[in-house]
Specification:
This protein has helices at 9-16, 19-23, 28-57, 64-70, 76-88, 109-115, 120-140, 147-154, 158-170, 197-200, 212-233, 240-246, 251-261, 270-282, 339-346, and strands spanning 92-96, 102-106, 145-146, 174-178, 186-190, 205-206, 209-210, 249-250, 286-293, 296-303. It contains 15 helices and 10 strands.
Length: 347
């Protein structure tokens, strides 16, 4: 059989399989139709490969105009059919620019298996809208994003965005949480990420509420550890300077001590412990120093024991009151109405 010009070897094999029927005069119309269909299929496959190559060349994505400029002999319906097939086969993603121009990019292989978890009737919906929303959430990382911000960046209707978010959430591709700054608004991020500490409040917040009791317990335990080290340091020989140096404790030692106590199931970081130690410094119960260790500085803390109690006159709130110049016997700002003055008198 003479090879037919313009067809690939695979097409020639399929044509050869029908030769018997044609030679015996049976199914000629069907055979001719088969040739036409195979030619169209072979052409579509070549167009698909060329579109993939264009996507690899243009990392920012390609448009219909780029495809038409590269293959001017193609008509728009042919391009649309190829694009739809590539979208259905999860080969490319479709995005919309600010000027409403559609852009097609190669799909990230790492996210391909995640979207394939959808049911068949959800495939088209997720391919068209799900990838757009997913990419926006992915770009925000651990900071997350609100639904209205997704709507503004995707140019999709809010109802469509909320529907996509529900579907992605049900497939465990994303998750939502309420931040400390905006507890009534849902923030969305990828399912495998943890929200930033600035959004959750870190270890000091539980269900968007500040856990003051937990902070007080850590404050007491840190102070007790510093105090015990100061007591042991007094037994060190070498004079006052040696005793002073021996009473300092590195923040990593305090963290190790708190972890070994097992008073909390929350995973505390060095930043958390140093925040607690800083409160002791502000309260006048400890002092901070910095020692050089390699190229980085290490924060050291030591307990400070006051030999004399602070005079009550030194704690009067009037000395640091920003409204001291407006305070008078009459008016809105008076010592009688001052809440801080009442607390000081009760103390």
């Amino acid at each position: 059989m003479i090879p037919t010009p313009g067809f690939s070897p695979a097409v020639h094999e399929r044509i050869r399989a029908q030769c018997y029927c044609f030679a015996h005069g049976r199914g000629r119309t069907r055979w001719l139709q088969l040739i036409v269909n195979m030619a169209a299929s072979d052409l579509a496959s070549e167009i698909e490969q060329r579109v993939i190559q264009l996507c690899e060349e243009f990392k920012q994505g390609i448009t219909y105009q780029i495809i038409q400029n590269d293959m001017p002999e193609l008509k728009l319906p042919q391009i649309v059919a190829v694009i739809n097939k590539l979208l259905a086969n999860s080969r490319i993603d479709m995005l919309k620019k600010d000027d409403d121009v559609l852009v097609f990019k190669l799909r990230d292989p790492g996210s391909l298996h995640r979207i394939k978890g959808a049911e068949p009737e959800e495939q088209v919906f997720l391919y068209i809208y799900g990838q757009v929303v997913y990419k926006i959430i992915e770009e925000c990382g651990t900071q997350g994003i609100w639904a209205r911000e997704i709507r503004a960046r995707s140019n999709l209707h809010l109802n469509t965005v909320e529907k996509v978010l529900r579907k992605l959430d049900s497939k465990k591709l994303i998750k939502s949480f309420n931040s400390v700054a905006a507890p009534k608004k849902k923030t969305y991020l990828l399912y495998n990420l943890e929200p930033d500490r600035s959004l959750t409040g870190g270890a000091w917040y539980s269900d968007q509420h500040f856990d003051s009791e937990f902070v007080d317990i850590l404050n007491q335990q840190c102070w007790r550890f510093l105090e015990q080290r100061a007591v042991r340091a007094r037994q060190v020989a070498g004079g006052p300077i040696a005793v002073r140096n021996a009473s300092y404790v590195a923040s990593k030692e305090v963290l190790k001590h708190i972890t070994e106590l097992g008073i909390t199931k929350v995973q505390l970081s060095m930043e958390d412990i140093e925040a607690i130690l800083e409160t002791l410094v502000f309260d006048g119960k400890a002092e901070r120093s910095v020692a050089t260790e390699g190229t980085q500085g290490v924060k050291l803390y030591r307990a400070v024991i006051s030999f004399l109690p602070t005079p009550a006159l030194m704690t009067i709130p009037c000395g640091v009151c920003p409204l001291i110049k407006e305070c008078d016997d009459v008016g809105n700002v008076t010592p009688v109405k001052c809440r801080y003055m009442k607390e000081w008198l009760e103390w």
